[in-house]
Write a structure and sequence with these properties.
It comes from Acinetobacter shaoyimingii. Pfam families: Methyltransf_3. GO terms for molecular function: O-methyltransferase activity; S-adenosylmethionine-dependent methyltransferase activity. This is O-methyltransferase. The protein is an alpha/beta fold. The protein has one domain: Rossmann fold. It contains 8 helices and 7 strands. It has a 7-stranded mixed β-sheet with strand order 3-2-1-4-5-7-6, sandwiched between helices. A hairpin with a 2-residue loop joins strand 6 and strand 7. The longest helix has 15 residues. The chain is globular. The structure holds 3,4-dihydroxybenzoic acid and magnesium ion. 3,4-dihydroxybenzoic acid binds next to loops.
């Protein structure tokens, strides 16, 4: 099935996703530096992120897990020129690549990349740090419950929270699979269930060039 899913993603991309030299350059540089591309979102998924920001007229975005900053570029495309993105990356090598791609892109928005454990960086933000309109959680899956709680502290009513990789080819359904990343995702579902600070939540399975995975989406009450 993987070949068909990839072919269909290529079909969608060729029809609906306009060429963008910044995005192309980001993927090219990431590949040339020897980094794998499976960690990045697909182009049609990136477009969904862009559109969610546009639908909600978002101006301030928090991203956990920068990697190559490819998703960061999509998030920037959904923002006005005075928009702001704080993106956090835990691995030094990924952060260096992400920063290089951000520098090369020369985007009008302010994009701040911080390196370190996202939970520590978020806890160290000043009390009066302006709240985010949109939060994309795409860092280590083991910490998703912690990231969700910390994100809620940085949210206002109506903030949208999107979490990547919440299906993992169905691994979340395998009771034998006790990997910390999989347990982290299951704990995220339990935390989202009837969470007093969330208006509503859902998750969507996706198939495509990145395999079988999915997004969870929540609106803050
Ligand atoms: C992995 C992480 C991701 O965020 C992703 O989108 C795909 C794979 C990983 O750690 O394997
Ligand atoms: Mg991801």
């Amino acid at each position: 099935m993987q070949q068909m899913w990839s072919d269909i993603d290529a079909y969608i991309e060729s029809h609906l996703i306009p060429e963008d030299p910044i995005l192309t350059q980001t993927l090219k540089n990431t590949d040339e530096k020897g980094f794998p591309d499976h960690l990045a979102v697909a182009a049609n998924q990136g477009m969904l992120l862009q559109m969610l920001l546009q639908m909600n007229k978002c101006k301030r975005v928090l991203e956990l897990g920068t990697f190559a900053a490819y998703s960061t570029m999509w998030l920037a495309r959904g923002l006005p020129e005075d928009g702001y993105i704080l993106t956090i990356e835990g691995r030094d090598t990924h952060a260096a690549l992400g920063q290089e791609n951000i520098d090369n892109a020369k985007l009008p928005q302010t994009i701040e990349l911080k390196v370190g454990r996202a939970a520590n960086i978020l806890r160290a933000l000043p009390e009066d740090f302006e709240k985010f309109d949109f939060i994309f959680i795409d860092a280590d899956k083991q910490s998703y419950p912690e990231y969700l709680e910390l994100s809620l502290k940085l949210s206002h009513s109506g903030t949208i929270i999107v979490l990547d990789n919440v299906i993992r080819a169905g691994d979340i359904m395998d009771p034998e699979n006790k990997k910390p990343s999989i347990e982290g995702i299951r704990d995220m579902y339990k935390l989202m269930q009837n969470h007093p600070q969330l208006l509503c939540s859902t998750a969507l399975q996706t198939v495509g060039s990145k395999g079988h995975d999915g997004f969870a989406i929540a609106i803050v009450k």
